Amino acid sequence: MEIYEYLAFIRKQKKIGQDKLSDALGVTRQTIYRIECGKQRLFLDQYIRICKELGISPAEPFLQMESDNIVITKDDLIQLKKINTWFNLFLQQKK
Questions:
Q1: Between 89 and 43, whose confidence is greater?
Q2: Rounded to an integer, what distance in angstroms lies between the CA atom of residue 45 and that of residue 29?
Q3: What is the 3-state secondary structure (H, E, C) of the chain?
Q4: Per-residue pLDDT tens for 36-74?
Q5: How many structural domains is the chain composed of?
Q6: Which structural domain, as residue segments, surrounds residue 21?
Q7: pTM of the prediction?
Q8: Nearest alpha carbon to residue 39 among 2, 70, 12
Q9: Does the pLDDT value for residue 85 go beyond 70?
């Protein structure tokens, strides 16, 4: 599963419509559609904002990936877990 597919999966699982997500991000619904289909490049700032709106850590999709297209080393995994911890703390402070 690619990152954009995972983001679409989580959005649907949480029953968040593309319209609601696009409104929260200040983009069109078509932008969300293109991102979720892999037809539009997902920039880091967009990615972080989408993760925040979905209530997930930016590291989560990488930790869940089962793609042959990505190789995650032990050091990468440690860094992703640090990002995950940092982001969860950040979300708790925002509540």
A1: 43
A2: 17
A3: CCHHHHHHHHHHHCCCCHHHHHHHHCCCHHHHHHHHCCCCCCCHHHHHHHHHHHCCCCCHHHHHCCCCCCCCCHHHHHHHHHHHHHHHHHHHHHC
A4: 998 998 888 888 899 999 998 888 887 776 555 556 667
A5: 1
A6: 3-94
A7: 0.69
A8: 2
A9: yes
Q: Measured between alpha carbons, how far is residue 17 from residues 6, 8, 46 in Å?
A: 15, 10, 17
CATH of the domain at 12: 1.10.260.40
Residue 47 phi/psi, 5° resolution? -60, -45
Better-predicted residue by pLDDT, 36 or 1: 36
Entry field: residues in the chain: 95
Long-range contacts of 55-60 (CB under 8 A, 24+ apart): 55/14, 55/91, 56/10, 57/83, 57/84, 57/87, 57/88, 58/83, 58/87, 59/83, 59/84, 59/87, 60/84
